[in-house]
Structure formats: C-alpha cells, structure tokens
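Protein in question reproduced for absentees:

***
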Amino acid sequence: QAGGAMGGDDKAGVTARARLDALAKPVGSLGRLERLGAQLCQAQGACPPNAQARVVIFAGDHGVTSEGVSPFPATLTMAMVRTILEGRATVSCLARAAGADLELVNVGVAQAIPATWVAAEGSHAIALVDAAVSAGTQNLKTGPAMTAAQASQAIAAGRETTRRAAAAGVGVIAMGELGIGNTTPSSALVARLLEEEPAHVVGPGTGLDAEGVSRKAAVVQQALARGGSVASDALACLADLGGFEHAAMVGLMLEARERRIAVLVDGFIASAAALVAVRIDPAVRHQLVFATRSAEPGHHRVVQATAPGAEPLLDWGLRLGEASGAALALPLLTAAARLFTEVATLEEVLALAQASAP
C-alpha cells in the first residue's frame, strides 16, 4: 500500500483507479504514486482529490523529562518553538519548499509564547495558536500524565485545528509534534496498547546513548507498573501515559475522519497518537498516510497495528520529528493528486496521433 490503509470511499477509489488506468501510460507504471493517488481519493471521498496542504505542529512539555530521558533540557522546546515561528527551523523550511502554510498550536509548553515571535506576515505563512491546557504534563513515572478533563481539552483543541483547516479549504494535513522528551510517553503508550515489553519499543529518541536508553526503558516500565490504565481503554491510556501533543493529534485525526481530510502522519510520536485514534474510531485509519519510517524500534509495530499492510512513503533514516518527515513527503501527495487533472488520457493521445497521420 502507498503509505496507509486502503479503504474509505470505495466509489471514489473505483473512479480514481479507472482514471489512472486511462492515462497515457502503461497501466500501473507509476507504481506507488498511483496507489497514493487512489488512496487520497478514497480518504477524501472525491476524485480528483484536494491537495491543498497545511503543516500542523502541536507543542507541549513533559514532566517526565526530570527523569533524564532526553539528552536535551526541557527549555529547548521553547527555543525550538521560537525558531519554527521565526521561519528558521527545518520544518519551516520544508513547509515553504512544499508550498504549504504552517500552524503551530501550543497545547502545553511550559512557558508563555510571545505572539511577537511569529515572522512578519507575507514572508511565509506561519500561524501561532494558543490552546494551552497546562504548563506541561505531570511526571508519568510517578502518576498520571494528565487528568481525563485535560485529555479531553487537548483532544478538543485538535478537533478545532482540523475545523480551521477545513474552513481554509485544506485537503491534506501534515501532522507532527514538538516537545522535549516526548518519545518517552510515546513508548509508554505503545507498550501499553500493544502489550509489549518496554525494551521492545524504547529507542534513543533524539540521541540517547545505550545507558540513556536503558534508563528511559526503566522509566517506562515503572510507569506501566503503576497500573493506571489498561490496554482496552485507549482514552484512559492517553490520559495516563500520553502528552498534550498526543491528545491533540488524536483529536485532529478524529475530526479529519468526519471532515474527510487526509492526514500525513510524521514518525514514531505521531504514529503513537494514530494508534490511539484508531483504537477509538477504527475508521480513522482510512484517512492516514504514513510519511516516514522511524528508527525507533517500536515504529513498525505501531504502523502495522494502526493500518495493517501500510508502508511509510519514505525510508531515509529521518528521526527529527516536528512534522519534518510529513512536510518532506507532501510533494509526493501533490504529484499524486495532479495526475488526475494534468495528464492526458491514452485515448486523447491516440486521437492526436490519428489526426496527424499522413
């Protein structure tokens, strides 16, 4: 499969495949690009699909960073928020390259974000939305990361993000996150929901050494041992072990299913949120395209549990996060969508050949 689960609107898929087969090329000769185009049509319930894109990043901090689960200080979240808003971060660059606007949604950064950090209007389309639930989550090693009410508030913020995109005519959301230490709650969520040992899903994140990975796995093991949630209740797992970014991404995807917007899922952290969303509403998987294969050891398990048979579009060793992989993959979706409107049919080409025959 191109990058996600086939399914969704079968009528749109049939129409898409018929159009692709009729183009001036051997049937199926564009391989995964054709399958990606059909998948977009099925996700949106329309052919041709809408390729107008927006990159969305949810930002938040995590109490568990006090346990030494990241090689970087928690204050780096705030510094990266500023760099993104000023247009100088990797994702800012990649969003511009893809011709997409960018929205950063604060759902739980530990410090207030000055609106003056957003680059001057007109230089590039970057927006800041303040939907902060709290100044970071609690330490999931010792207790629930958030309350049920906080999780619901973050989910609602994600839903509202999708509604803003829909109102702007967006058909594809490239979804990612920002938050120092957030591979730890991601690993905890995955370990709980898939009932895996932490050692099987915990990885180096942004660059931990072997000792650091062992320390992180021990923190995840202690969080699971608290028994604050069970695998059969995805919402409870989200509140117990997740981050505000995870909850917001879950809300974004749930609303995207209702609005028939395709979601380009970034790496391991975004995929962990996708697993939660699909556990809540299995039909969400039809909206999802996985952008990149993560180096985190649990990523393949997450993708297959979320959308069996799906293959991420890119396998380039990406491990940055902040929606960078999703933004980088956006031109592939644009190309797949434009096949439907810009490529001649074989019938048209044969007619030209006949008309020009002596």
